[in-house]
Amino acid sequence: MQTQIPPKPATTINYRLRRRLTNLAVTAVLAVLCYYFLAPVLWLIVASMKTKEDVFASSPLWFGSSFRLWDNVTHVLNYNNSIFLTWTKNSLLYTIPSVAIVIVTSAAAGFGMAKYRFRGRTTLLFITIIALLIPSTTLAVPIYLEGSKLGIVNTPWGVILPTSASAFGVWLCYSFFSFQFSGEIMQAARIDGANEYQIFGFIALPTSRGVLATVAMLTFVSNWNNFFLPFLMEARDDLMPLPVGLGNMAAQTALGSQASSAAGSAISIMDVITGAFLVALPVAILFVAVRKYWAAGLLGGSLQGQ
Amino acid sequence: MATADAPAQAQGTLIRRPGSTRRRSALAGVRVAPWVFVAPFFILLFAFSLGPALYSLYNSLQSDQTGKFIGLNNYNTVIHDSDFQAAAGVIWQCVYTLAPLFCIIATVVALILDSKAGWGKSLIKLLIFLPFAIPATASTILWAFNFSPDSSVFGPILHRMGAQDLLFFSTPTTLPYAIMNIVVWQNVGAWVIVLTASLAGIPQELVEMARIEGAGALGVVRHIKLPLLMPVLVLMVVSVTSYVLTLITEPYLLQNTLSISATFTPNMWAYNISFQSGFFNLAAAAAMLLLFIASIFAILFVWRSGIYHLQERD
User: Fold this and answer.
1) Mean per-residue pLDDT for A72-91?
2) Superfamily of domain B82-312
3) ipTM, two decimals
4) Which residues of B touch A37 (CB under 8 A)?
């Protein structure tokens, strides 16, 4: 594949030189990009190991005069009767059930729309695409208004239920079942006496493990990181998930400045920085570690048919 | 792509086996089963998307003071509110500067990563995505410190730009760019991955054919890669525009730090008018306006991109 077009002999050297220069230029551009995207992340890691003074005085990408990670972490975890651990527990409590519901409902709905022809199917498909494209933030205030009517505000359900329907998950599953799951297998299973639910449970679900892992991963990250909806729904300190709690802490400090925090506040910017580090790191590592699952899924979801 | 040669699609699934004597329970039949499959998702979707939307629509037609039906008066109030107009102006500025900028960056980076030139690209594909996994709360916090020249990894550049402290970013001209920077940093990587994945799906023979016809690298990009990428590009434009339209997390969290107005974006305006001032029906009207605009974008996308027909062509 690499050698399909031999360069004209007279210009070989010129060609090589140009090739090398292009490589150099492109690598330089990539290096700049890499710095832009990565340096702030490195900053967060290093800053959470410093003292407050060193955050401003020492090199932003290197360690400060003393290694303070454990002191910083202990300080955050002890803040306000270990509320950070409560927030972590809440995050898990809100995220895991919604991911489980999303997996099941997405697989079923994707399978149903891909493998059966029934009246109203195209309408449902159309609704799914529209729901996929409308940003969830638009609906946060309406969901809150409805939620307060239903009495699920300030309960775990206020976050779990609205984040349990994923049009994106349905779309991924729909694409998968449409293009990579043959109707002949279903026919064969029917002849062997399986009913539709057995086909779904024993054949379709196991076959779609890969795409379901993608759905699970992306839903987990987006629900874990979600800010606005839980921010509206869970106003009580002990009900907040991590991003909302952290946002609350940040709101009580003067971010990005050495000035001491607002009067009477027990939070220092080091708590906020270390908190951000603790919130961001596990998910980021998890996400990069299982990259092969979601990377394939994103392709599957982005317009299979082209 | 992957299975263009997939065996005959599901058309046959409705044909019952001739001569089948086995009786199925009513629930297990092929007529009912699909509804059982799609029901849970659509019930949840309707309950927590369409339901709230309709309920807000209903609320938005009622007065906050008297609770009586007042037609479109709330919409009138929202549109003529000077704070809302200012917020809409900010968003408009973001839409026409940020959306193109975002899309150009993502496309160029994806094309570079897809090309043969340069070293270390697989590493970059991994790293460029990292910010997307970081919660908006955390990335807003880390950027607040990186806007401040003394603690920033971009300190020398900020100093050269004339920034003394992070208040440099709180002026009306610089503030939108500060917010946009966070949005780009956080989200561009995800789209780069989607675009490179789509680029990898372009048949190599097409590219080779264009090469043999005499097209250079840029010619291949212009005549082969970009046209084939078009549906994904349109999807990106729609998504980024919608994201900007409903911006709230980043400016809300920076509110004190950069002294941002409490009604900086339309969504913040809606939040403020409902949760701070108690005018929930006005907020419902604002939310409906945003939803309406976002829906128009979504429908335009479905209509123009052909995504719908492609999926239906089986």
Assistant:
1) 90
2) MetI-like (1.10.3720.10)
3) 0.84
4) 127-128, 130-131, 185, 189
